[in-house]
Amino acid sequence: MSSITREEVAHLAHLARLSLADSELDHLSAQLDVIIAAVARVQEVAAEGIPPTSHAVPLTNVFRPDETTPCLSAEAALAGAPAVEDQRFRVPRILAED
Amino acid sequence: MTETTPRLAGFTDAVARYDPVIGLETHVELGTRSKMFCGCPAVFGAAPNTQVCPVCLGLPGSLPVTNAAAIEYTIRIGLALNCSIARWCRFARKNYFYPDMPKNFQISQYDEPLCTDGWLDVTVHAEDAPPRQVRVEIERVHLEEDTGKSQHVGGSTGRIHGAEYSLVDYNRAGIPLVEIVTKPVAGTGELAPEAARAYVTELRDLLRALGVSGVRMERGELRCDVNVSLSPKGSDRWGLRTETKNVNSLRSVERAVRYEIERQTAVLDAGQRVTQETRHFQEASGTTTAGRSKEEAQDYRYFPEPDLVPIAPAPEWVERLRASLPELPSARRARLQAQWQLSDLDMAALANAGALDLVAETVAAGATPADARKWWLGELRQRANTAGIELAELAVTPAQVARVSALVASGALNDKLARQVLDGVLAGEGSPDEVVAARGLAVVSDDAALLAAVDQAIADNPDVAGKIRSGKIAAVGVLVGAAIKATRGQADAARVRELILERLS
Amino acid sequence: MTADLTSLTAAELAAAVAAGEVSATEVARAHLDKIAAVDDRVRAFLHVSADVALAAARAVDARRAAGEPLGPLAGVPVAVKDVYTTADMPTTCGSRILDGWLPPYESTVTRRLRGAGAIPLGKTNMDEFAMGSSTENSAFGPSRNPWDLARVPGGSSGGSSAAVAAFEAPLAIGTDTGGSIRQPAAVCGIVGAKPTYGGSSRYGVVAFASSLDTPGPLARTVLDAALLHEAMSGHDPCDSTSIDAPVPPVVAAARQADVAGLRVGVVTELGGEGYQPGVLSRFGEAVELLESLGAKVVEVSCPHFAYALPAYYLIAPSECSSNLARFDGMRYGLRAGDDGTRSAEEVMSLTRGEGFGAEVKRRIMLGTYALSSGYYDAYYGKAQQVRTLVIHDFEAAFEQADVLVSPATPTTAFRIGERADDPMAMYLADLCTIPSNLAGNAALSVPCGLAPDDGLPVGLQVMAPVLGDDRMYRVAAAVEAALVTRWGHPLLAQAPGLTSAAAEARSASDD
């Protein structure tokens, strides 16, 4: 009884924008199947009424004042960019409309 | 995939058979000094990628820190909208890939918004109908960060379709954004388009009064998504709704709602189902077009933002903020209406004409309410209509109108001259006093000058003069008119009359 | 003279530099020479920055000459895990996707260390994006354990650990998300500590799992680790999760080094089946040692620790699937497949497909799965509940004991390649360390001997409550002192190969 199918793994790869070769997909699917079955152990724990913890060390209300601080120069910001045009990051054509 | 131009139903016919249900999602760019999670300046119009830092660029290793003012502004917005303020809430990550989002997730709020369950009362004005009160319920007000901006290059329209590549500027990434979501609003019927517009207008005015944003729609500081669905009359089943984006002006809000009602009616009439989808408003044609169809609805995989700690606004702080709220537009309107002693209809007329603030400022500059209204709703509205612009766009200020009004009240100008002075101001010739001087438009009260005109009028009209001498005072009007004409309308009519009678007695 | 300097502790070096007995430049040179001599075999470093190191050393010497005050670590070399952003050295995180990336900003921790006068020698190897327990997931090849070059140095801070164990640096910094400082320290026979979460700033630490990542020190002695811990820790307004409270007095505690009257809790669930017998025997001896030093030893049960590993392997991947989304070839790093016809979405996928290694891909997909609508409650949500229960277990345990102890990791260093194809087997290395990451409390590993079955180092894990970091240093220092007395020398003196004088002579004659 598998905990995840190859199709589901392919779907996850798409959601996560990971291009995988078929052999990679096969290999990873098998491994993920095992891992998911193992981590599913958390469901054995009786946790009725137990609140989830998102922050181990509880803090609240950490703010900064509304003041400006120095920026990077455009040159520094763009320094590592694979492609630059007109002082902007040049990226390939975007398909999806936001 | 292009849509063929759909057949539309007529609007009146549509709302006779269907009840529209509308909803609005509004994004407001807060006017804080710095960005939501970093200290970069939150300014408009800077050179590309000059207002960025590791945090708003989402560089590896960077971490967000919450802007205290943004929290304060959001709470104030919630309070002004009669919302409950969360005692404890968190930010959440909204995960999706898009080049204008540096981290490929947006820090937002999901199931724990800062403000919930409020309302905004809106007065909807329509042609030939008494104003209607609509209570728009607010589902939530939450905080998030804005994205960068992409410019699409290479296509014919500058839009995404057909573009070869895009150029991204992250100056806007990280600017604080407040999202205000209404609950669905039913029961507006044929006034749905106006109601949507009225809500956005009232919201905009409220935000401006709070001082939390410049709310300039043309700069993207206030953005609307409009939701519309249709419910067959008599049924309590709600239809599938569409969400229309790219609605960039108040007028577009109204047009988008109207178009969607007509379009959805045609779809339903043809026996089809309305597709639940995101559409785009086309400014030029006033229509909406389908967005690219997606295979599946987006799964944003929301989870609490681990790099930020929860927000727990202290109740005393919230109460202080509540106590320090400024007078909201609705309260202000009620106060002015009482002060000016106007009927609802008169107030509506002011609102409809976009004259309320102008009149208020004119009164503040010294004019009487009656005079202010007379000028703005009369002469000036005519001028605006002729020029095809809004009242507020006329090249005359409330202070200047108040000055003209004061000159008339003091007798220095009469109505006719006043109109000429306004012409001069609108033409850019200067202030009212400068125009009066330059054009020589002052009422002439100097007796010596008047007597010359009076004597001329008497000399030119001996029969009329004779009648007056013999007691027919009513005939004096002819001589008054002649004398005034001789002074190019600048004579003080009352004084002229006196002088004529003196001369002929 | 050179060999002497690299065998000194950080405390000794700092004192010598401050006293003018040796210059910072000499110290830096000695360590750079050592790296040049041995790193071709140890492979601890991805980038050695001689220029930066010597410039920093000269600056310290100039300050000293001018009579200006010196920082506590002035002149002491430090190796930096390649997960920290450094403005003058590349930061790769052990990944192809960031190969050659030069950050435009500096991490808070490295900035503070430089401010304290420490000399950064370079960036050390790590499992890609801190995911792994051996450095075998590094895109640039694994580092080697100086005790046996055919074995792993642990991970993910394996490069840092190997560098210290090989005497290439007296100090190193790493990060600990599931045990990534403590486990490599244990298998390399050195000290490695995970401060209380939020005790040191994550600003400039490339994120793996935000609610678990903790920057921390690695060193050859407990006192050295404490000195580094103090210098690198403290509140940072750039990190919203950093604790606004004084750093616990870890240096004083390390000097105090006594356990008389302290209650030491042995965690029942962290032992038994699955643990190497040699590890368990050394651990048992360490517990006896503590008792003989005056500690009161008790058994404590933390029943939910059995679920800590699966909970961790849901929480960490979930957070990392989101944290690593930014690596898409649009703004920095690798961009693959942009031939002018492909869409941004395709280029993102190709870039990530090519730039990420297998373990990273596994965890991203696992995390994407756990956060998906429909699965969130059963996986991520449930794991966060287990986290609460683990925290409760610790709270109850710390009522009964002042510190808790366990082996740092179930086995000694395994062979390179031994677990590379078995992710689950690899994950088991974190069994003992994960609970403290989930709960955020402080924990460290201190060497407690060599396993009798294979002669490889075993680490004793000491756990302290949140903000009780000083307690674990106190206990660790006591154990260390007692063992060094018993052995007559520090553990590392027993390391074969690189660290023995004979090996020095061998490598000298090989040159």
- Structural class, from helix and strand content of chain B? alpha+beta
CATH class wording of one domain in chain A: Mainly Alpha
Approximate strand percentage of chain A: 5-15%
Overall geometric form of chain B: elongated
Order of helices and strands of chain A: HHEHEE
CATH level-3 fold name of one domain in chain A: Histone, subunit A
The poorly predicted ranges of chain B are none
Low-confidence blocks of residues of chain A: none
Strand order of the largest sheet of chain A: 2-3
Total beta strand runs of chain B: 15
Based on helices, strands and strand pairing, what is the structural class of chain A? alpha+beta
Give the biggest sheet of chain B.
9 strands, mixed
Q: What would the keywords be for this entry?
A:
A: 98 residues; alpha+beta; Histone, subunit A; 9% strand; C: 511 residues; alpha/beta; Amidase signature (AS) enzymes; 11-stranded mixed sheet; 18 helices; 11 strands; 42% helix
Overview of the molecule:
The complex is a heterotrimer of chains A (98), B (505) and C (511). Chain A is of the alpha+beta class and 98 residues long. Chain A is flat, with a radius of gyration of 22 Å. Chain A has a domain of 39 residues: Histone, subunit A (Orthogonal Bundle). The mean pLDDT of chain A is 93. Helices cover 34% and strands 9% of the residues of chain A. Chain B has 3 domains: 311 residues, no CATH class; 86 residues, no CATH class; 58 residues, Arc Repressor Mutant, subunit A (Orthogonal Bundle). The mean pLDDT of chain B is 91. A 9-stranded mixed sheet of chain B has the order 3-6-7-10-1-11-12-13-14. Chain B has a 3-stranded antiparallel sheet with strand order 5-4-15, with no helix packed on it. Chain B has a two-stranded antiparallel sheet with strand order 8-9. Chain B is 38% helix and 19% strand. Chain C has a single domain, classed as Amidase signature (AS) domain (Amidase signature (AS) enzymes). Classes of the chains: A alpha+beta (98), B alpha+beta (505), C alpha/beta (511). Chains A and C meet through helix 1, helix 2 and strand 3 of A and helix 11, helix 12, helix 13 and helix 14 of C. Strand 3 of chain A pairs antiparallel with strand 9 of chain B, so a sheet runs across the interface.
